[in-house]
Structure formats: C-alpha cells, structure tokens
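Entry under discussion copied across for reference:
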Amino acid sequence: MPRLFLLIAVVAVFYILLRRIAAMPPHRRRSEYLKLGLGSALVITVLLALAGKMHWLGAAITGLLVFARQSLPLLIRLFPLLGSLRSRSSSGSPRHSTVSTRFLRMHLEHETGRLSGEVLEGSYRDWQLDEMNREQLEELRDLCRREDPESLQLLEGYLEQRFGQASGSEQAEVEAPPAGGMSRTEAYDILGLEDGADEDAIIAAHRSLMQKLHPDRGGSDYLAAKINQAKDFLLGA
C-alpha cells in the first residue's frame, strides 16, 4: 500500500509539472521538458536502485549525467575559454534598438528593419510576439488598448509588419511619446549604441534607423518618434 501511495504521488507531481511547463512560453518549454525528463530518470533510477532492481553503477552514471546537465551554465562561467567562445558568438549578433513600454519590449534589427519583441506583463508574460498566433495577439492588443496606449502603438507597428496591416478594423491613433522621462541609457538603447557614443555615431544611427522605419518597409510611426526623441535628448536639442 505505501508503494501505491508513493506511485500515485509521483504521478501527480509529474502531471502538475507537465501542466506548468505547458503554460510556459514556447521558447522555454524545450529546456524545461529536458530538465523534467532528466529529473524523472534520476528519480526512477534511484527508486530502482533502492529496490534492488538496478546495479548501483547505473544509478551513479544517471546521477552524473543529470549533474553535468545542471552544471553546464556554471562550467561556462568558470572556464575562461568557454566564456570567450560564448562572448565571440554573441558579439557577432546583429545590432538592434530596444524600446520598452509597460507591456512590451520591442526590438528593431538594424540590418533588416525587422521588429520582434516580448511581453512584460499580463497572461502572456515572457512570451515572444513571434510565438503568438493572431488570436493571442488580438487578446494582447485589447489589453494594451485598455491599459497602455504606448504599448498599443508599439504592438500596432509589429502587427502591421507581420500581417501587412494593423490588426482589427480600427487603427490606433499614433501620438508622439510623452516628453521627458527618458534616461541616457534608454536613449542609447533606442538608437542601438554603446553608452558614450559620440555625436557622429548618434546622427548616423538615427539616419539609418529612420530609413529602416520607412512606411514602405512596415515602419512604426511610434518607434520613429521614439528614435527622434532619443537623438534630440542625446544631442541636447
């Protein structure tokens, strides 16, 4: 009887964890499923070993595999060679500008002008916009319309680029971002520049980004206004 209760408890915990993983953003599910699989293998191996159904060597090997998988991030931080390889791969990634509002963090890739982003609040928190279907994006759009006009304007730019037109029957009225409240770090992030970039770099980045945001390329009027605001702030205009 105790074994039956233990089995039921293990199955119940496994089911609850599966439900929690299924509710996560798609880009996080793979790693969580892997962790769950490794953890389940370890539990099963330990139980079999305790019951005398598995040689201790098999249990030890399984435990080492699980430990190695969980320790990989720490190993990368500890070994300089792995860390340098990691930094090299990240340094080759394309430059992008970042604009954040209450519900969204939007990225504009400089080379292609492509918009992407993630949700910061709400039922779709931590979801990537590219992972969401039209119905989910409409739900997010309704939330932004009710709660935060700036997030709505950012989302409209993304929807127009992805689907060819703003979602829904009505277009969001685009207004300039409120004046003030922008930090130097935010301004540099918007222009995709390192902190302390000189005037020539600021002007060049602004010119390049405004070309990427041309309406013919699915540009966002709100993003264009933020980029203008960032340039003016950094140049003291």
